[in-house]
């Protein structure tokens, strides 16, 4: 039997339900792992050992009483620090919220607790989820478990790094422009952005409300599906939550097949700026899909080349409005309250001290894009591009069942390399942004290591809105195909920490 | 599209309630100029007849029943306040400004 921390979530839940191990033992094994390796990785901002052990004991007690356990009862999880957790620090990677203990749980947090999931702690992230490397965290960067001098992607680098380094079998991320999928690609893990509205945003600290979407991070497609099912579904507390049944993602993950499916290769996601090793692994993935019985079709989505510029107008515009709530009055940091400064001065001093460089850049960019005289040329035009991108997807899904592309143009880059070059950093999300603008569903899963640097490459699968189950059907087939080729999961090849 | 000037960036900082230092202002002005130059590409798309999309879901006026339901207690609501007094948020002076 392999060591507890390397089990999948599905294996862990079975072992607990069958009485082979207790939930407390599983939680303790992960807390020990965090103690041993997280000084090197820095995936967690806060570890809630007491809370985790208490939640695990509650699962063990329920089992002892003869209660029927849910499919993830007793499974440990790392929660991105952008979801509120009652009484447990929630910082969003920002000085602005240092030490803040929310008075309520996010719906995602609530559902995890109700499912008996054991929340180990909160994970590192780019400040307010703005970034692609986790370097924008006010609490220092996270290392990629494959090479800790490289970034783990972002903004959910902590969540991806935690599962890739076996500090949790599951994690939750949020994806506004790729913040679940891009870290999954860079760390050799699985990440899913559900259909917009599929997972409640209540208690998710808002960055860009029309784009933000919480979703699962895992080491296998089935584990991601189990977690997806646990957190998804209508929530009356989120008015943008979809009031319709959740697609049957678990069933799809258990019956993976692409036989007879039409798979579209997005023509625009290749060429200049794409690393040779990424394109080589992607070409192999397409070949694998063909061998597994899919029909491959090349698809052109001409407006995708405008997705990145449109995103960097829309997301900052919404952010400039959302982050106005950090006003130093009701919660969070307050600076300069000396009896001399006015409320407005305190507000400006606090925001200057509490926000990092990228957050300030985006607030100002959004303020600019929304200001009179520029609104039509920037924000208005970006919204029209959003329509065109949605139409490109509609046309594509008229011809194919899913689209595929590399998740990212390159593998993990060195910490520091793009830290003060925003335009270079923004390119990391080139392939993931269109799905956020259109609100459809997308997954990243590992498709091998690039020859030139030995780092993981991600395959992106995109499905129409509310067809999230297709991601899992295709993802599970691809994962099984690679497992039979490789003989072991990709993460087995990661160097020991 | 014209570039963004240092004065415009200073104005944006005031609108954004950010007390930027002089050095930070210079640095940000150069970066914002680069970014705005790049995102201005959205203007290349001829889209006069294209309706804007502000949101991926076609939802309007989502309602809930107008009934009383539990909320935060005053203690909970004030638990993260930088300063509180008599079950209220205490804020710096807001009167006497220009």
Automatic annotation (TrEMBL), chain A:
**What's an example GO cellular component term for this entry?**
glutamyl-tRNA(Gln) amidotransferase complex
Record-annotated Amidase domain positions:
25-471
Source organism's superkingdom?
Answer: Bacteria
Looking up Gene3D superfamilies in the UniProt record yields:
Amidase signature (AS) domain (3.90.1300.10)
Q: Which reaction does it catalyse?
A: L-glutamyl-tRNA(Gln) + L-glutamine + ATP + H2O = L-glutaminyl-tRNA(Gln) + L-glutamate + ADP + phosphate + H(+)
PROSITE patterns referenced in this protein's UniProt entry, alphabetically: AMIDASES
Residue ranges, annotated region (Disordered): 136-155
Q: Where is the signal peptide?
A: none
Task: Give the EC number(s) under which this enzyme is classified.
Answer: 6.3.5.7
> Does the UniProt entry include the keyword Nucleotide-binding?
yes
Q: What is this protein called?
A: Glutamyl-tRNA(Gln) amidotransferase subunit A
Organism source for this protein? Answer: Embleya hyalina
The taxonomic lineage of its organism, from the top, reads: Bacteria, Bacillati, Actinomycetota, Actinomycetes, Kitasatosporales
UniProtKB/TrEMBL annotation, chain B:
UniProt lists compositionally biased (Basic and acidic residues) regions at 85-98
- Which Gene3D superfamilies has this protein been placed in? Glu-tRNAGln amidotransferase C subunit, N-terminal domain (1.10.20.60)
Q: Which Pfam families match?
A: GatC
Q: State its Enzyme Commission number(s).
A: 6.3.5.-
Q: Which UniProt keywords apply?
A: ATP-binding, Ligase, Nucleotide-binding, Protein biosynthesis, Transferase
Instruction: Kindly list the GO molecular function terms attached to this UniProt entry.
Output: asparaginyl-tRNA synthase (glutamine-hydrolyzing) activity; ATP binding; glutaminyl-tRNA synthase (glutamine-hydrolyzing) activity; transferase activity
Q: Name one GO biological process term.
A: translation
- Top-level EC class, please? ligase
Q: Where is region (Disordered) located?
A: 71-98
Whether Protein biosynthesis counts among this entry's keywords is: yes
The reaction(s) catalysed by this protein are: L-aspartyl-tRNA(Asn) + L-glutamine + ATP + H2O = L-asparaginyl-tRNA(Asn) + L-glutamate + ADP + phosphate + 2 H(+); L-glutamyl-tRNA(Gln) + L-glutamine + ATP + H2O = L-glutaminyl-tRNA(Gln) + L-glutamate + ADP + phosphate + H(+)
Protein function: Allows the formation of correctly charged Asn-tRNA(Asn) or Gln-tRNA(Gln) through the transamidation of misacylated Asp-tRNA(Asn) or Glu-tRNA(Gln) in organisms which lack either or both of asparaginyl-tRNA or glutaminyl-tRNA synthetases. The reaction takes place in the presence of glutamine and ATP through an activated phospho-Asp-tRNA(Asn) or phospho-Glu-tRNA(Gln).
Which proteins does it associate with, and in what oligomeric form?
Answer: Heterotrimer of A, B and C subunits.
The entry assigns this protein to a family as follows:
Belongs to the GatC family.
What is the designated name of this protein?
Answer: Aspartyl/glutamyl-tRNA(Asn/Gln) amidotransferase subunit C
Protein species of origin = Embleya hyalina
Recall the taxonomic lineage recorded for the source organism.
Bacteria, Bacillati, Actinomycetota, Actinomycetes, Kitasatosporales
Q: Which gene does this sequence derive from? A: gatC
